[in-house]
């Protein structure tokens, strides 16, 4: 059969469980019954129970079939995924909640991620599928979640903590506004192969791709040259010009960013800020990265006030205090030197000593 | 344990969190592409470097987007991933699925691809990870016949996404799902045939909690809000207090505008000072609800750092009523895209273009009035332009 | 006698009244006895009385001699000027304070400017001596201070209010961090006289002087061209190239800026922000300017909390509220469009309606 | 009133605030330059435009600065201000004067100039407003003989200034006057012989109230502070409360770090959280005093908008003990100026140079360590440079 184009996605209305169809737009309030279990109550008196389970996101078709099997058994075949890639089983029958949870546990699905918890780590492709990664994605996430698993299945943090990972500065994981962001970075300049440049690269657009103007193009000889002093290894030139590979096994690695948020609750959305400029790629378990994230998480957990997001806590106590409490050294790399750098310099005589 | 040929990845089968390595192995058992992927990944773990070549343009008939081409740089070792392209399948809005739909997807992917997926990609698509060039079209045909379509990629509209909204959430101020689906259907052409200067993303959150992170990662961010007063049920406020909530400390003291007063019996909100941040409502869902005059704020410009630095979206319309057929919004979107299309350089996102040409020029072009809600604060530098019509003609 | 060079200013130590010499660095506390009168008490028990009087700053030698006469009579010949150009009579004898004030009043010197008051308006040359002004300096200041005189001689404002005026964007009055700033602006592009350019202008430095890159230089023909769309009339090109005069009697005028501060008390120092993009030059009394400043001052006075500086008040209630309370229209000119403009755009869904 | 020839300016003789027009007229009565100035100004009031030509370089022997050249564009009408140059006289630090000194200045100026002055200019000089080219040298000679010297102008160090500090203020954490005088005397050469890329301003405030606005208008801003705990006299705190001060509201609630607690009897300060903003001390001068371990924060970069936008100074040394002969500070100043001098383009202020080349490069050049007190927050963009020595050499 000839394929129809532009039909768009399946209509979501055909995917909604009947309890939602009946109460669409009529929800009154919700309660988190326990970690991973939400109850939404409608004006009609009906209730919807959502049970949230963790997922590695990179899943096989058999894994998806397993999920379907569970959903068929407890949810009349209805489920959804969340914006952070967790699975949500949607039930209209309270009595099935505990049996579902029991089966999920047995099958190794963590139930949690609601309320004041760590939820799933939004992440990207890494070495599994992309061409520009400075680190892997799924691996560091798995290593980290193993270590901070308890924070997923409980709700004892001051507020929720959103951790994200992106394997290069393109930031597909949109890590730039996360409580804790794990970001793959290169640290050496691209190795331009000028024999390939004429065939595979458009010189003006490659020159234009560089945020710091580090690339000079020679239109006559069809060559590109990188000014090593001006290059900060973003890899954007490689995106537009394959002849400028930037991966470097010895110097690629991970940086850690903190204090971002997206919600408007209390404080405005914020970007994450640099905490640790570099940690080495140490597969398969990236211990330096895992420990660094855990340390930040735990310092936050033990110092912040109730409902304070990580960034809100830091802004209250001051960045001086963040660095002293976490024991992370402050370096000249923490000081911005891009376009709007001066906006981040301290323009007051107000500061703390520690 | 028996000695395997993936000792590094095997380490990641251990531990409590679900392991993607298990999934890789599961797929590898029945699929040679998945098997080669597993081993190429093991090599990456050893080498600390990716083993994919730079991009490559592939696709399906009639579309310019929806497929990401990918080729191994070690086809000698891993011939089954020599080509290993990704297909981005537009998810049902809100990521709701019936199991039969999901199973169809699995069947198609087992037939045409590696049997590996991302549920979902960070833009929101169901990502089908890895197939060969000659399977692309047939896979698409099967998808289409099963009621699926591809999402966006390249310099096109990207798959819009929306928070769960009125389907489950009591705070939804707009019908995020209907709006998202409506826009997706309206702009199929823009999604599938890249003709913009660069990517364009739309994300919709039905309240200011912004559960799809619209403000951070979409060129056009639609965020639900309300205009009138927060609805209070004083009885339920008291119930919260009795249940142990410290209303003064947890609610009033954390209100960004400090516009609430609690005397132990009644909660008073000075709504004219409220900025609708959602905090108090979040804490007392039974007691407080958004007002009744609902709509959305429209913001533009959000994006990741490349090229000129990351941007959070900026308010351009503080409040817009949003009801089908959403004509006012669509007209605005089209005015914005037209201006962007006409003025942007290649690979220049909307936010970067506004940054380069100025908000003043943008507002004039898309015919929106300047309002104080657009800024954190007015300008500090005195480099103020005047339109020619502001000036007095020389009278000499 | 041949002049010695590089002798530096008179040593301040030779200018200090004996009571200061004796108690230098030993002051314990101060009190504002009444508007314009400070009492500083030393660890030794001695007290210094400072009586502050307003000054037009542009003063004749005879006027200075009059001040000297007064200082001789009440202060043993000791006085100082403040960093905002007021005169301070320095007394060691409390009994002379009231007679001094009486004489000052008789001679027309306003006594005040202390505590929660409007103090002297820092200002610049204007048409009296400079070559780039877009307005006069002394004139608008005199007109304004006549009108808000009462705020100088009383202390009933929420906090002190620092008003400054600069007659062009060079901002010699350093108005950029004032509670209320009055700033002369041009609004038309410089009229380049290319017949003079070759003789009086250095082309590359003129081109470089333009903040928005509006000037193109033609080195061969020795001409300069201004791109009218990119020019925002700052006048910096005229500073370096006399052949680019910018003054325009019909379109020059004044803009009003608010909410800046310098002290670190409570909040960090802040820049002033645009309140009114343009008011006409209307000598001799600039009524539009005087009224605008007075309006802002009075709205602040009646709405801010105790100790809140103008900018602190605005930040608490929001800029929406500032514009609605003052009745000042918000325009696209209030939205920044220079280098770091995007830092000022609202990146949250938080705002007020009025 | 009789009809005069300065009807517009006459309007400004009215009103309660002292009138500069009175001074102009007073001077005009005995001095023809002042008289022409008065009338040229009247013409400006009529024309709404200045009547001075562009600049002009004039000066005194051995100096490259201290005089601002000025010529009328209507010498036909106002021949006595055909040349009308300003002399900038370095004020005694803190603007303290004995009347005999001031009278000397007046006598000299009556002899050589218009009899009009600014007491003072906004950089701090005593401005002698208007003399002719041929009087410049003789006026300077007379000034020098009377113990005065010129201040800075052009691409030179400008006249440093300082708050009244320990001469009268209980909060002075450094001897602003001594330091200012010492630096002024040390750097006479830099002040009088322009050899920098542009102007360089130094201002000194002895505490964070910053009464000379150092942070806003000097390339090098020195601001007094302390390191140990605020000294509290609880008896005097109580006295404030009894005198009617609402300590909770006026003091504690306005403390930016909320690090104070008041129980009606005792004020507790958590000094580790205090950022030494001065607010509480300002409100209760008898009860609270800065600590005993005193010194200053050093900040750089402050300036007005031209060319790249106004800047407030940035912290580069959070705390420096400052005692004569101030060697550590001077060495720092010289390292900074050397780097600036070597790297700046013409008319590029220090702040703009740091903005262009990066704080990282600046800190390395002047040999200062990076500390968190230098930033409001660490960087948000991922465009991080690494020094070559940070990298692992390739091991393949
Ligand atoms: C299911 C999901 C929407 C979806 O369409 O998929 C969702 C659902 C809910 N969110 Fe959310 N949020 C979801 C992603 C987000 C995101 C997006 C993100 O993390 O990428 C945000 C912004 C995060 C940020 O600010 O960085 C988000 C910020 C919030 C907040 C604000 C919390 C705050 O104090 O900042 C609330 C309010 C609250 O939790 O009290 C909220 C509240 C809720 C409520 C309680 C709304 C309701 O009444 O149903 C839902 C259950 C929350 C819970 O997990 O405890 N939701 N929520 C998303 C679940 C992700 C996951 O699997 O963990
Ligand atoms: C698959 C996905 C990551 C994932 O694992 O989920 C992804 C993968 C890639 N992204 Fe992305 N991006 C993905 C979501 C994002 C997001 C998040 C979002 O959309 O919410 C962002 C940040 C938001 C934004 O757009 O600003 C994002 C920002 C980028 C950028 C930087 C764009 C910028 O303007 O800063 C690039 C670079 C480019 O376009 O050249 C990029 C480029 C890429 C490319 C196409 C690589 C390239 O340089 O050409 C990656 C292909 C990987 C592969 O081989 O499959 N990707 N990319 C996400 C799309 C899946 C989906 O359709 O659901
Ligand atoms: C005399 C003078 C210093 C000098 O060397 O000349 C001075 C003297 C004092 N200042 Fe100041 N300040 C002087 C200019 C400044 C400036 C600079 C300026 O305005 O250009 C500032 C920064 C202004 C700003 O923030 O925009 C300044 C911000 C302060 C503050 C901070 C107030 C605040 O809440 O922001 C205080 C504390 C206070 O008033 O409680 C203060 C306090 C004081 C005290 C009480 C200090 C003391 O104990 O002696 C002095 C009397 C203040 C009064 O007038 O009530 N002084 N003071 C200056 C008088 C100027 C005038 O003629 O009015
Ligand atoms: C006389 C004085 C204004 C006054 O009435 O008090 C003044 C007058 C002039 N200033 Fe200024 N500046 C004066 C203090 C300032 C200040 C305030 C300060 O020093 O604290 C500033 C702002 C702080 C700063 O330096 O950033 C200031 C920022 C400027 C600028 C802009 C510099 C910048 O980097 O943004 C210029 C333009 C230039 O240098 O080309 C300038 C240029 C000028 C010139 C020389 C005009 C020119 O373009 O060549 C003016 C000469 C007027 C005349 O004919 O007498 N003047 N100028 C002040 C010096 C008196 C004194 O020595 O005491
Ligand atoms: S973050 Fe970079 S490396 Fe990772 S998927 Fe996106 S583009 Fe590829
Ligand atoms: S890696 Fe980035 S900074 Fe370096 S040359 Fe390429 S585009 Fe420029
Ligand atoms: S954004 Fe608001 S409406 Fe949408 S799911 Fe989140 S809390 Fe509910
Ligand atoms: S929504 Fe936010 S701003 Fe409004 S009253 Fe509640 S907490 Fe305060
Ligand atoms: S502000 Fe401008 S016009 Fe006024 S004195 Fe300074 S340089 Fe001259
Ligand atoms: S007035 Fe300013 S903006 Fe206009 S051309 Fe001259 S320097 Fe450029
Ligand atoms: S800056 Fe501080 S020390 Fe100097 S006069 Fe002002 S309050 Fe006193
Ligand atoms: S000096 Fe400022 S920060 Fe420190 S305790 Fe006092 S008010 Fe608080």
What do these coordinates show?
The complex is a heterotetramer, with 2 copies of chain A (354 residues) and 2 copies of chain B (396 residues). Chain A has 11 helices and 12 strands. Chain A has helices spanning 18-23, 61-75, 97-106, 138-147, 149-153, 197-200, 203-209, 236-240, 287-303, 310-317, 319-326, and strands at 27-34, 37-42, 47-53, 58-60, 78-81, 87-91, 163-166, 180-185, 215-218, 223-226, 253-258, 273-280. Chain A is globular and about 70 Å long. Chain B contains 14 helices and 14 strands. In chain B, 59% of the residues are buried. Chains A and B meet through strand 1, strand 4, helix 2, strand 5 and helix 4 of A and helix 1, helix 2, helix 3, strand 3 and helix 4 of B. Strand 4 of chain C pairs antiparallel with strand 4 of chain D. The complex binds siroheme (4 copies) and iron/sulfur cluster (8 copies). Residues 124-125, 130, 132-133, 166-168, 170-172 of chain A line the site of one iron/sulfur cluster.
List keywords for this structure.
heterotetramer, A: 354 residues, alpha+beta, 5-stranded antiparallel beta sheet, 4-stranded mixed beta sheet, 11 helices, 18% strand, globular, B: 396 residues, 5-stranded mixed beta sheet, 4-stranded antiparallel beta sheet, 14 helices, binds siroheme, binds iron/sulfur cluster
